[in-house]
Design a protein that fits this description.
The protein is built from six helices and 14 strands.
Length: 249
């Protein structure tokens, strides 16, 4: 802990204000380390996979702000639109004003098929885009759309790549909220493994709800308490029997 504290040099926080973007799937950590911390393996919910240092997963091509850097420059304090934490420096690329203007000046495409593989112009695999992830759209083709993705050059600066994505796996944002569309999106999440704080690239409960509504253009906070208290209308079901709860839902 003393080494982690010294490397974090929090007495100098904030030391940076650098806009950036993630170039691969990453994680926000409570401390600048991937070593886990568990409370107890003798009590349920206290051992694996409930790592106390796992804050949230962050999908590829997420805009962030770097507000601090560790002494060894291996970790950055990353602020996303929904949470903040330590992220490996190798997972980000720095952006400039021109990049941000390009990223913000298009209509967006949203992925509606979970873990959609994306390939560059030479057919080389780039990454798998999860359900709900957003990309700027360049143009429509008959069966596909051309979108922009971010990659890092040799100086760790973000560069734009044009990638084709099938209209069966992505659509212009927002997707119209119909019963059929909601069922189709929800079906993508059936039988998905649970991932505490997004551990191992899987979703926890609040991330599942967040991604479920993202294709329809509805933004939700990251954790369940904020979703229940800060958006929509809270409906208390605690006094109902299980059968009554099911009927109400």
């Amino acid at each position: 802990m003393k080494k982690l504290t010294g490397n974090a040099r929090l007495n100098h926080y904030p030391s940076e204000s650098i806009p950036a973007i993630t170039i691969r799937h990453s994680n926000l950590r409570a401390l600048p380390t991937y070593r886990p911390h568990f409370n107890s393996f003798k009590r349920g919910g206290s051992g694996y996979p409930f790592d106390n240092l796992q804050v949230s997963a962050v999908t590829v091509n997420t805009p962030i702000l770097i507000s601090h850097v560790t002494r060894d420059r291996a970790w950055v304090m990353a602020e996303t639109a929904y949470y903040f934490g330590w992220m490996p420096a190798k997972d980000v690329a720095f952006v400039d004003a021109d990049f941000m203007k390009s990223w913000e000046s298009h209509q967006y495409v949203v992925v509606i098929k979970d873990k959609t593989p994306l390939y560059d112009g030479q057919g080389l695999f780039l990454f798998k885009a999860p359900l709900g992830s957003l990309f700027p759209k360049v143009r429509d083709e008959e069966r596909s759309m051309e979108i922009l993705t971010a990659a890092a050059n040799e100086n760790q600066r973000a560069v734009l790549k044009k990638v084709a994505v099938s209209k069966e796996t992505a659509t212009s944002k927002p997707l119209k909220m119909t019963t059929m569309n909601m069922a189709s999106v929800a079906n993508e999440l059936i039988n998905e493994p649970y991932g505490w704080g997004g551990l191992h690239g899987n979703r926890d409960c609040s991330a599942m709800v967040r991604d479920l509504f993202a294709p329809f253009g509805l933004w939700l906070p990251r954790n369940s308490a904020q979703q229940a208290q800060n958006v929509g209308t809270f409906i208390d079901l605690s006094a109902l029997t299980p059968e009554e709860k099911e009927r109400r839902l």
